[in-house]
Request: fold
Amino acid sequence: MAAKSKRLPNHHRGIFARKNIRSGDTVCVMGGRVVHIHEHNAIGSFGEEYGIDISEDFSFCPANERELELMPQCLINHSCAPNLGFVDTVRLVAIRDIAAGEELTYDYAFILYRHPENDFEFRMDCRCGAPEGICRKRITVDDWKRPELHERYGEWFQPFLKRRFAALKRQN
Ligand SMILES: [Zn+2]
Reply:
């Protein structure tokens, strides 16, 4: 990964570009523990906090700090004006040129899905610094349904969410 993890002044961790990255470059191929929705209880809230949904039923889901270190993709923070997106289930690419030192981000709408059997309720107040009208201020697990995000970033969502959004549009 052309990136490193460091602590932000507010003690949140993030992943930062070590060098300039060109639009289209692969930044990360995700790996690590893949967990089925029925196993979530065994992993607990740690995994839910850091998990990345890669299908309706499966997530990348570190069980503890040690596993999290091996799954840096789970430390990438949200931005409403992200610089990374998914070209497939496991590959994250730069969606614009990124300068050395910039924080790497994707939009959590690309990866969050509410499974009907899971009562996990993700809500986060957003202070990503994106301009007025772009920052959603509040991020939820249902943001993948927002048409304006598909207009802006449609190609960068996890493939299963792209399929779900297309089905949603056909229904309406
Ligand atoms: Zn925001």
Q: What stands out?
A: The longest strand covers residues 3-7. Residues 3-171 form a domain with the Beta-clip-like fold (CATH 2.170.270.10).
